[in-house]
Amino acid sequence: MFKLFTIAGANEMLTTVDARLQTLQDARAALASARDAYRDVKPGTAEAYAANQDLAFLARSVQDARREVAHLGVQVPDLDAGIVEFPSRIGGEVVHLVWQRGEDAIHAYHRLTGDLTPRPLQDGDAVSS
After folding, report:
1. What is the DSSP annotation of 7-62?
2. Are residues 26 and 66 in the same domain?
3. Are 34 and 62 in a shared domain?
4. Residue 16 lies in a domain
5. Of the four, 12, 23, 40, 98, which is 20 to 30 A from 52 by CA?
6. Conformational region of residue 6, where left means phi above 0, alpha means psi within -120 to 50, and beta covers everything else
7. Opening angle at CA 99, ends 95 and 104, nearest 5
8. Do 66 and 108 belong together in one domain?
9. Per-residue pLDDT tens digits of the chain, which is 129 residues long
10. Quick one: 14 and 66 in the same domain?
11. Strand partners, 85
């Protein structure tokens, strides 16, 4: 889903986005842990069968969590760092508002062409949906 966010609208979604990111990070960590444990399982055993079922369930959990985040209309360029981008418009240019988990609000954006370095939002930036 493609949606353009205002700064206020994106900031209002931060609690929801943060919760969904946490779910996604937790699901991915659980899958990685299960994969590590699976390495020690003897193939062809009941334990291996159960481990395969667990891995399949956890992989679906990761896919479901990714889908939930994508459904919000945001992008996650760096899940480990918790960086989220909200499509927006400043002036006539489509940009991405940039937020990182732990921040209280969105304070930066980056252009989609050329230099992708985050730029601080200025009081005068006209952001429209």
Report:
1. HHHHHHTHHHHHHHHHHHHHHHHHHHHHHHHHTTSPTTSHHHHHHHHHHHHHHHHH
2. yes
3. yes
4. yes
5. 23
6. beta
7. 135
8. no
9. 578 999 999 999 999 999 999 999 999 999 999 999 888 889 999 999 999 999 999 999 999 999 999 999 999 999 999 999 999 998 888 999 999 999 999 999 999 987 788 899 987 665 655
10. yes
11. 75, 98
Q: 78 lies in a domain? A: no
Q: Residue 125: what pLDDT?
A: 64
**Helix H or strand E encompassing 70:** helix 46-71
**Are 41 and 52 a contacting pair, CB within 8 Å?**
no
Handedness of CA 36, 42, 47, 50 (dihedral sign): positive
Domain that holds residue 12: 7-72
Minimal CA–CA distance to 101: which of 7, 4, 24? Answer: 24
Q: How many CB atoms lie within 10 A of CB 75?
A: 13
How many structural domains compose the chain? 2
Same domain, 17 and 60: yes
